[in-house]
Amino acid sequence: MKTFIQCAWHSRCRVAVLVAPFILVSVVVFADQSGAEDPNAPKTSSQSTERQSKYETVVTATRTETPSSHIGSAVTVISGEELTTGQYLWLSEALRQVPGVDVVRSGSYGAVTSVFIRGANSNHTLALVDGVELADPSIINGLVDFSDFAPENIDRIEVLRGPASSLYGSDAIGGVINIITREGSGPPRFSFIGEGGSYQTMRGMASASGGTDWVNYALSASNLRSDGISTSPLQTRPYLRSNLSARVGTSFLGAWKLSLSTHYVNSRTNIDDIQNGRAVNDPDNTYRVDQLLMRPELRGSLFQGRWQQTIGFSWARSSRSADNLADIANPASSEGRFLGIKTKLDWQHQMKLFHGNDALVLLEAKEDTAQTSSSFTSSAFSFSSAFPRTSVRTYAVTAEDRQQLFESLYLTGSVRWDHHDLFGNVVTQSLAAAYEFAPTGTRFHATEGTGFKAPTLLQLHDPQYGNTDLQPERSQSFDGGIDQAFFDGALSVVSVLFTKDIRQLIGFDPLMFKSININAARITGLENFARFSHGPFRARVDYTWMHPLDRSTGRDLVRRPRHKVNAQVSQSLGKLELGARLTYVGTRDDIDFTLPSPAPVSLGSYFLLAVTAQYQLTRNVALFGRVENALDQHYEEVRTYPVPGRTVFLGARADL
Fold it and tell me: Is 151 helix (H, G, I), strand (E, B) or coil?
């Protein structure tokens, strides 16, 4: 920890850290004198609270609270209420409902769960929880595994689809999933949930929240156990998951807030063994995860709110173990230990420079640390390998400017400089524009930007296949779309065209037996979305068409469908609330490892139908239930790995 904090005073950071505040103070003071608002000036939409209240406010697209109508990026918001009414056991199941997002789970409950945004690789998705990055540095390709994340104590999830490296740095080629937890308020509230269902699955959850003018808190704890997805009554894949989430904060001096966000996950699952390229049940093959995230953060404002600051320190520790004990069916044994630590110190400044203009400057220092070991023993031979504790640091400066023109045109530009310890400097940028034509309820928006994905520690330094000559993966992206509202906003229709070119993709060279920059991809697509609400009835449908071309093979990128449809409806009937959601996933390519020589294979399309119901039994108690995969579809997300059949769950919720 001490070593990391000292890195903030690295020669390249020292100048920025010391000089930046003086520059910012000068700019703000100058703006306060020369850019003061004219009280007689006509009000713009950004000044009109009445007009802003009609729009959703999002944070992820600009790193500051901004009405969604003012941004050019494509952002979908999943509210905490939607997570509750959807009765999701896994956060990843809610992400399946987002246009342009594909979710793939490699087997039973607790197996690796990958998220692809607009066809980019799963490690091109940056995931945050209250500002803490979720990626584990000890995972070889740096992907985020969503297998154990519970949808609890969450205020909202913002899914940014499109380039975001100019604001967030590495990993944000495809987009950003920003999970924001609840902030307690008002008198103490308590919630309790108990449910059970298919595969002997049981879940319990308890939460508490509340707050005063000077302190607030929101806490939750849950536990889930299941026999897992089985293909035979004699086979089980037990899964255990415990989640703790806490967010506490205090206010002082009127304009300052100090908060602490903490999240803990512990899980154990039986994973499939691989025999002749096929996934088979192995009761002695277990996988454990222990993850702790923490972030203290200080927010405040100066000069009547013209200069807002956020100082935060993020720390994430992920410990994983994989043990496959010898048995009659498989006399060989193996074990693996993996430790990943991410630390980040960030200082963000948001300034109102003059009328209709907002600027942002962000300073960051990051350190990734990884350590791994593995061994294999059989009657024929044995081997072991170790990756010693290794760290890499990155320093970054981000600048962003937002300008409003003519009361209806919103322009945003950002640029970021990253310095990596090993491969040096990377500069990324993005431009976004949004234009509203209020008389017809029409909005045009477009985004252009570049991105990069830094090689992971293991890709760079692994003693067997690491390559210190690796360069970051690079991307160039563009999207443009139109939003149209009808019937005073009751019906809204959105269409977005996007394209993305990715080069220098990191692959594995079997001849040199090391990682190299070899592949390239071009992804084009179209997202279409419609939403309708009238009284207690709500409906939405989206269709995504995509061509995820692997330019090195001429085939589609694996596990990414060309066609995907989501539809949801809900209706309240007094104390009864009914809902349904339907997902269609088209054919997609995968690799068949059961063949003597692995070869491409096409996975069939499938429909997934879920039906939910909730009845408010008393003022404080509700009964709920759902049927998932109601059509009992047999399908594959990954070749030969099992998926759940029709499942039924029943439960009760008490709110006190």
Answer: coil
